[in-house]
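G.,

No rush on this.
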Amino acid sequence: MSKPNLPATEAYSHLIAQIEQTVNDGRKRAVAAIDQSMVVTYWHVGQHIVQYEQNGKERAEYGSKLLHNLSHDLTARLGGGYNHTNINYMRMFFLEYPILGTLSPKLSWHHIVEILKISDPLERSFFMKQTEIEGWGVRELKRQKKSLLFHRLASSKDKAGVLKLAQSGQIAESPEDILRDPFILEFLKMPEPHNWHESHLEERLITQLQQFLLELGKGFAFVGRQYKIQIGGRFFHVDLVFYHRILKCFVLIDLKKDEVEHGDIGQMNFYLNYFREEENTIGDNEPVGIILAREKHELVVRYATGNINANLFVAKYQLYLPERAELEQKLRAILDDEESGN
């Protein structure tokens, strides 16, 4: 079919853009509707299996055989999607979430499968809620699970804080809520510090900005790198500057290859005072400063931050994924100590 000769007017271009946007939006809604339909369907499949078992129609020792037989027969009748593993997840899905209405419609079946793989109920609850809050795709969810985000956030809280984290997720209500100590930067694929400089770390973070924003958490918007400020005829540069849309404040990040020094803390306080006076506009809250260092000495940080800006934090970063056993032990100590009344 030949294309008629129509004038390439601005109105016609706008019409094309409108139609394209409408079709794309419709496709997204269709995919979301299919995903949600799949979640509801598989929940009901799990319900049928559990009710069959509970009615005594299948003895417990034959449970595994039941799933095997179901997989064989349902695949023959319905096609793909009903292998033994998937059917087992459908059964688990109903057992873990017997009230379907409590689940967010934002979660796809693939999200739910990834969450069901988590054995600890507190961690599972956290990732269920956080996936909804952050709008993670399945790939992002897998990465955050692997980086042990729940354990990293929980390790700085008391028992009540851990339980709230598991129930409600991490919501940015104060500057402390945006901290993750340590921050995990394994996606940079950098060797342990030896012959590279902070500028190399900064360059990699900018190159992998999308991944870095995922690690920082919801609400961060990138403003600039080596942000130049002029004071007293001299120029200074802040490594990375972000704006947090939820807290409504600038977030300044200074990168350190090795251990943080007291002078680094004084420098960040200097930057925060400047941003408060010169960069903030009506509606902006106090700026937040985060020094990201490979190591930190707690006493140095304590004495250097005493009686200065309350929104100045020192956090560690790691270039490799954390050890689960170490973080699990720390989390268990928090819960056990409070249970024993210590």
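When you get to it, here's the other one too:
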Amino acid sequence: MSDKPAYRGALPRPTPETKAFWDGAKAHRLMLPWCEDCGRPHFYPRSLCPHCLSSRLDWRQASGRGTVHTFVINHKAAKGFDQVPYVIAVIDLAEGPRMLSNVVVDGEPTPDNVRIDMPVTVFFDDVTDEISLPKFRPAGGAQ
């Protein structure tokens, strides 16, 4: 039995365009859509490449590495969330796209040590039996 409280926040609803992303997250793999025509990855998942508008997309596993581009510290809990403060960050993924996620330091969503340009790595928070959320933590350090 886990000491972790039950997740009470909003859950994603996978669509045909995002299913591969959420299936990858469940398997603890950060998946990105790559365009087979221009060769570039993108995020968020969608049916057309935002760079060249091609519909020829392939899913590939990303490295899970990135840097904090910018962040905000949220001090007021959103509906269903009760742990504040927490960090909402834009992550520059090593592959190029930017991704919105949370940064967690030492297992807690505390903002004390988050900095712009800080290297981060992905980890997956298994919030239900079916949904795992990709989140980030400082690279090479805090778990």
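The chain has a mean pLDDT of 90. Strands lie at 31-35, 57-61, 65-74, 86-93, 98-103, 119-126, 132-138.

Enjoy the weekend,
O.
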